[in-house]
User: Which sequence fits this backbone?
């Protein structure tokens, strides 16, 4: 039988095989940094970046099953749980997030075409690939160190992206605000991670979760609660959760539209997945969590944060006339919707072995895809319509868009209907799954019916959000065009918008494949027996 050091050594030596697609993305990014010195044109840079995404996708498809099999075989015949030893987790959620990151990278590269300049195109494409690699690594990081490095792999290239396309005073201000607040949030998160390491003596997330869960059966450590609150605060910045959301409207308004499309979606994916990992939602056994509502107040804190986030986002969006600021507050509200799923997931220990219709986390995964399609698609339309004068900038600038640009107006209309949550769109299915997960949560334990109250808060906020989305639709189709239709347009951005709109409709009509993929990505859906090793961290 293998000893613990031997198993750990095998995982470390085989770790590279678990991140080959991400290594392909980073390798192509390095080549692009060099290429930019000699061939500064947009076309070869973006084509090479797209080829890198395709290569990573091929590697992911070829290695997916093999890496999972090797992952389990490493600990076959031993009493060790692989998630308490391995630095990376290739199962379940990891594959889901990897494919999500690759698809998003392809769309973002299309959005780069009309905005980035020739001299910066290679650097822009390279940073986009590194961000995609970082998001994918967040999905499979099973160690505090690898998780933090993956998050920084998302953040640091984003600072560069905010500066590259447009060098105006507003863009510089947006980049500086995002940089300073992001660094502060990373420091808070790292401080919380140091507490987790100090309490458990290990950086492996699986071992951390099991050790804390075992300790909380006896007595809850105040230091563990402080660490959890710091993690929520540090990652709340990326999710734009209240009260860590104040930077978003200013950054969205001043930053280049293509980059705003990225920061509206990518940090939310990274933040929500990282938060789920730190709270133990991705480390089986799922019925024994370190921060459940029976032993801690962490779920109640997230309940308050989720309710406040969706309410503040929607109410303040009602007051906005600037399109980017409106979408910023809209993104804040949708971050609150997705936090609801994490609150529900933390209630699973109260279910006493029963499996609810929705676990909360699978609803979050589905909604992440739906949110990415409708939000990134909306920014793609704005980027396509942007002219030398910077318009459309306000809601009134979209007046008569249905007549002047019917395809763009149709795509934006689909995205707005999905943001509202109307039937036959992905947004409706996502909101419905979140609502069902909250309504189906256990009615026992300290929080009892508070989950259903949160479901009601979601429904009310969805109705409030419909007001400002319908206002935009009314301006597009009920007013006369205010601008000429012959201004320059980036057709790749229109292609991205149409693709997002089509995918939104397809998932609204036939959501089963994505819903099943999200369901299989959560640990509760994996019925493979997994041994528990509470003493692995020793």
Assistant:
């Amino acid at each position: 039988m293998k000893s613990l050091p031997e198993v750990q050594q095998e995982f470390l030596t085989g770790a590279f095989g678990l991140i080959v697609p991400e290594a392909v993305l980073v390798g192509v990014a390095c080549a692009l940094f060099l290429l930019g010195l000699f061939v500064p044109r947009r076309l070869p840079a973006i084509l090479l970046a797209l080829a890198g995404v395709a290569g990573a996708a091929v590697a992911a498809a070829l290695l997916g099953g093999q890496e999972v099999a090797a992952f389990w075989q490493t600990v076959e015949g031993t009493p060790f749980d692989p998630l308490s030893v391995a630095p990376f987790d290739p199962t379940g959620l990891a594959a889901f997030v990897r494919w999500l990151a690759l698809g998003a990278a392809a769309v973002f590269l299309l959005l780069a075409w009309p905005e980035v300049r020739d001299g910066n195109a290679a650097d822009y494409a390279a940073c986009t690939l590194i961000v995609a690699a970082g998001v994918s690594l967040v999905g499979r990081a099973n160690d505090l160190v690898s998780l933090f490095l993956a998050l920084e792999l998302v953040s640091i290239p984003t600072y560069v992206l905010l500066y590259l396309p447009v060098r105006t005073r507003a863009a510089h201000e947006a980049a500086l605000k995002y940089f300073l607040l992001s660094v502060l949030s990373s420091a808070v998160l790292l401080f919380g991670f140091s507490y987790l390491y100090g309490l458990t003596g290990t950086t492996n997330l699986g071992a951390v979760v099991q050790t804390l869960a075992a300790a909380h059966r006896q007595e809850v450590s105040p230091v563990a609660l402080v660490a959890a609150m710091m993690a929520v605060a540090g990652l709340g910045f990326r999710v734009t959760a209240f009260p860590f959301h104040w930077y978003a409207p200013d950054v969205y308004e001043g930053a280049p539209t293509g980059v705003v499309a990225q920061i509206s979606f990518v940090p939310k994916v990274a933040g929500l997945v990282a938060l789920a990992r730190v709270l133990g939602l991705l480390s089986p056994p799922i019925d024994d969590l370190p921060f459940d509502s029976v032993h801690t107040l962490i779920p109640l804190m997230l309940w308050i944060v989720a309710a406040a986030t969706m309410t503040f986002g929607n109410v303040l969006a009602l007051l906005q006339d600037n399109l980017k600021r409106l979408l910023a507050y809209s993104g804040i509200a949708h971050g609150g919707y997705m936090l609801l799923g994490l609150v529900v997931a933390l209630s699973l220990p109260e279910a006493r072995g029963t499996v609810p219709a929705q676990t909360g986390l699978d609803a979050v995964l589905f909604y992440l895809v739906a949110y990415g399609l409708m939000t990134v698609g909306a920014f793609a339309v704005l980027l396509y319509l942007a002219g030398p004068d910077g318009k459309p900038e306000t809601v009134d600038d979209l007046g008569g868009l249905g007549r002047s640009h019917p395809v763009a107006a149709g795509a934006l209309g689909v995205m707005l209907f999905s943001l509202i949550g109307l039937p036959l769109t992905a947004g409706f299915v996502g909101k419905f799954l979140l609502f069902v997960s909250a309504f189906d949560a256990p009615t026992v334990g300290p929080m009892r019916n508070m989950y259903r109250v949160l479901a009601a808060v979601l429904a009310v906020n969805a109705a409030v959000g419909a007001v400002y989305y319908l206002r935009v639709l009314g301006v597009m189709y009920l007013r006369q065009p205010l601008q000429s239709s012959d201004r320059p347009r980036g057709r790749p951005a229109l292609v991205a918008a149409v693709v997002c709109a089509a995918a939104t409709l397809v998932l609204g009509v036939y959501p089963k494949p994505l819903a099943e993929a999200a369901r299989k990505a959560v640990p509760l859906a994996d019925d493979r027996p997994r041994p528990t090793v509470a003493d692995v961290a020793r």
Remarks:
- The chain has 20 helices and no strands.
- Confidence is low (pLDDT under 50) at residues 525-538.
- The two ends are 19 Å apart (CA to CA).
